[in-house]
Amino acid sequence: MDAGGRQSVESEQNRLTVIPKGKASVGMRLELDPFIQHGHVIEVMGKTEASARVMVNGHEVALILPDGSFHYFTPPLPNGQSVITVTAQNAQGGVNTQQKTVVLQ
User: Fold this and answer.
1) Structure confidence at residue 19 (pLDDT)
2) Residue in 101, 83, 103 with CA at minimum distance from that of residue 40
3) Which long-range contacts (CB under 8 A, 24 or more apart) does 4-13 make?
4) Phi then psi for 35, rounded to 5 degrees?
5) How far apart are CA 90 and CA 57, in angstroms?
6) 63, 26 Cβ separation under 8 angstroms
7) How far is residue 94 CA from its own chain's centroid?
8) So what's the pLDDT on residue 25?
């Protein structure tokens, strides 16, 4: 509502997933292969638990194979230094995050 009492249009709906935080001892596997550069796009590959969710720079990896391997292409990155953040989460609250810096010229 604004100062004049008029109601605004409805905002976009957001979808999120809540994963309960597990004990500090709950860990999980996240192994990253060396990144491969294709121009301004970085190919991210690795392995985690088969039932985990994986995010690369906030974008969810669509397919995780039964053996836990995953494959993701970043959107085009600008010239200069960029940080690639890969996070894996499982249903037990385990989280593993790794960051790597890439430099594009």
Assistant:
1) 53
2) 103
3) none
4) -65, 150
5) 18
6) no
7) 15
8) 44
Instruction: Quote the pLDDT of residue 6.
Output: 82
The reported pLDDT for the residue numbered 83 is 94
Paired tokens of 7? 């109601």
Rounded-to-integer distance, Cα 63 and Cα 68, Å = 9
Q: Which of 50, 46, 60 is nearest to 17 (CA)?
A: 60
Token pair, residue 105, equals: 């010229």
Identify which of 90, 104, 98 has the alpha carbon closest to the alpha carbon of residue 45: 98
Tokens of 8: 């605004």
Q: Consecutive 10-residue runs of the chain (105 residues): their mean pLDDT?
A: 77 60 65 95 95 93 94 95 93 89 91
CA atoms within 13 A on the CB side of 63: 4
CA proximity to 96, closest of 55, 66, 67? 55
End-to-end CA distance of the chain: 48
